[in-house]
Design goal:
The protein has 231 residues and is α+β, with helices and mostly antiparallel strands. The chain contains seven helices and six strands; from the N terminus they run H-H-H-E-H-E-E-H-H-E-E-E-H. It has helices at 9-21, 35-53, 58-68, 93-97, 133-141, 146-149, 224-227; strands at 77-82, 106-114, 117-126, 156-164, 192-201, 207-216. It has a six-stranded antiparallel beta sheet. The radius of gyration is 19 Å and the shape is elongated. The chain starts with 8 loop residues before the first helix and ends with a helix.
């Protein structure tokens, strides 16, 4: 599923109103395997996807999401640099970055965390020759998010894909396909539910970074008080 899932966003709005209307103090998370829970989960994923695509900062979008859905007592999202990891460039990345086979590329992984919940993991391959020495030094030695470090480049974001990695509803559900019967057991949600891939382009129209953002199941870690139907 790709950017086309935005066209279903209208489904999410009335459901999200009911999700937040009964918000209270966070307690245990509870998603049960029944048709209503599956529909709510789909609505929330569609809404988050549309929100992320319509705003330039994933950090600020997740911070609003964290606050609106009571994911933590202090709804503040912080970046956490994962050190000592490396990943090869994805296939086709050099063409997307507009660089040759010998151009140096660096890798950086950052987690966006709200409270004790990791909401997303961002893989970032960037071209150091297109950044200043100070920018490269800050990226090497601090947890500061990439976008904040390079903000003086006045970059823009070009989304390449937005993929729903997990659908709680069967294909064709929006066209009348029968929903799976409920088991009333805990709903099985995979570790990652949504993924965005984008290129960041500087004001000189040269790509500076390829980012793959994988959003975790924690974006659905609402307290059961929020999930419960309104009396």
């Amino acid at each position: 599923m790709s950017l086309s899932i935005m066209r279903y966003g209208i489904v999410a709005l009335p459901l999200l109103c009911s999700l937040t209307a009964n918000a209270r103090e966070p307690v245990e998370v509870r998603w049960t395997d029944d048709p209503l829970s599956r529909l709510k989960a789909m609505a929330m994923l569609q809404s988050l996807n549309a929100d992320l695509l319509s705003h330039p900062s994933a950090t600020l979008t997740l911070e609003r999401w964290c606050g609106a859905h009571h994911l933590a007592r202090d709804a503040k999202v912080v970046a956490r640099l994962v050190k000592g990891v490396d990943k090869p460039l994805p296939e086709g990345a050099r063409e997307q970055l507009g660089i040759g086979a010998d151009e140096a590329v660096r890798y950086r992984q950052v987690q966006l965390v709200c409270g004790n919940l990791v909401l997303s993991e961002a893989d970032n391959w960037y071209v150091p020759s297109r950044l200043s020495a100070d920018m490269n030094r800050e990226l090497d030695s601090t947890d500061v998010p990439f976008g904040k470090v390079v903000q003086s480049l006045h970059f823009r974001r070009q989304t390449l894909s937005a993929e729903l990695l997990w659908s709680p509803l069967p294909q064709g559900w929006d066209e009348g396909a029968v929903l799976p019967p409920g088991t009333h057991r805990p709903l099985a949600i995979p570790a990652h539910v949504l993924q965005h891939r984008a290129v960041l382009v500087g004001q000189d129209n040269r790509a500076i970074s390829l980012v793959v953002e994988s959003y975790t199941s924690n974006v659905l870690a609402m307290p059961s008080a929020v999930l419960a139907p309104t009396p």
